[in-house]
Amino acid sequence: MSDDRVVLVTGGNRGIGRAIAARFVANGDKVAVTARSGEGPEGTLTVRADVTDAASVDAAFTEVEEKLGPVTVVVANAGITKDTLLLRMTEDDFDSVVDTNLGGTFRVVKRASKGMLKARWGRVVLISSVVGLYGSAGQINYASSKAGLVGFARSLTRELGGRGITANVVAPGFIETEMTAELPEEKKAEYKKAIPAGRYASADEVAGVVAWLASDDAAYISGAVIPVDGGLGMGH
Ligand code: NDP
């Protein structure tokens, strides 16, 4: 089954999602990415989707199914931050982050599960963050949404684990992308000091772990949280 896989990565036009999509292309898989803007890496099919909108997610899956076949590997990667301290955080700051990061995962994985159930095989990988379990001042919305993914993957494992489907969480630490480029320099230096590895990671270091979770070697791993954080969360 896993010889002719169709992989869908949300937010595959840049950052971590783009590196993940490129890794699956290099593995010889058929790969689609969702993007609101831009394009996925070479060798991918780009489809437009906003993960906050169920109809848009449904249309994207339909297009991928028509062009490549049913999706059996899904990587829920699209995510946003709107950082500020609790007292300054508006309802919209909270809702929009949770609706994109956790609600978006719900919409995407729900739609993907149809094809996986039919195939009796599937791989679900959710991109969380070290801060989901570590906590982070100024990120109550983001950390809540990322912690929610752990309960999501574990419940999904209990629902679909008997149908050849695994669901796991990857929790990256600090990765060199546009998201972290926005951080002030002194914050970046402070974070680096706290990371036992003493450096940030490349997006490709996350991609390798995602590809492994989707491989046959990881068939008996489900409901796990795999940190890719240079030791920052100490394995959580
Ligand atoms: P980027 O900001 O570089 O990319 C975010 C991606 O998400 C873009 O492709 C963006 O699409 C997409 N996206 C955002 N909102 C939506 C939406 N409503 N619908 C569809 N797509 C959307 O982020 P990173 O690559 O850094 O992060 C990717 C994931 O990894 C995120 O979930 C993030 O939380 C997580 N992560 C990142 C870390 C880091 O250090 N960078 C650390 C830990 C976790 P568009 O370009 O069209 O806006």
Describe the structure.
- The chain is of the alpha/beta class.
- It has one domain (2-228): NAD(P)-binding Rossmann-like Domain (Rossmann fold, 3-Layer(aba) Sandwich).
- The chain contains eight helices and seven strands, in the order βαββαβαβααβαααβ.
- It has a seven-stranded parallel β-sheet, with helices on both faces.
- β1 (6-10), α1 (15-26) and β2 form a beta-alpha-beta unit.
- The site of NADPH dihydro-nicotinamide-adenine-dinucleotide phosphate has 30 residues, from α1, β2 and α6.
- NADPH dihydro-nicotinamide-adenine-dinucleotide phosphate (NDP) binds at residues 10-11, 13-17, 34-38, 49-52, 77-80, 100, 127, 129, 172, 174-175, 177-180.
- Residues 5-178 form the Ketoreductase domain.
Average per-residue pLDDT, rounded, comes to: 96
Rounded to the nearest angstrom, the distance between the terminal CA atoms is 33 Å
Shape: globular
Structural class: alpha/beta
What do we call the CATH topology? Rossmann fold
Compute the CA-based radius of gyration.
Answer: 17 Å
Question: Could you describe the largest sheet, including whether it forms a barrel?
Answer: 7 strands, parallel
Unreliable spans: none
CATH architecture: 3-Layer(aba) Sandwich
Q: In percent terms, what proportion of residues is strand?
A: 15-25%
In the CATH hierarchy, what is the superfamily? NAD(P)-binding Rossmann-like Domain
Q: Tell me which ligands are bound.
A: NADPH dihydro-nicotinamide-adenine-dinucleotide phosphate
Count of all domains = 1
What is the count of DSSP helices, taking H or I runs of 4+ residues?
8
Family: Belongs to the short-chain dehydrogenases/reductases (SDR) family.
Protein name: Beta-ketoacyl-ACP reductase
Pfam family, one: adh_short_C2
Domain Ketoreductase: 5-178
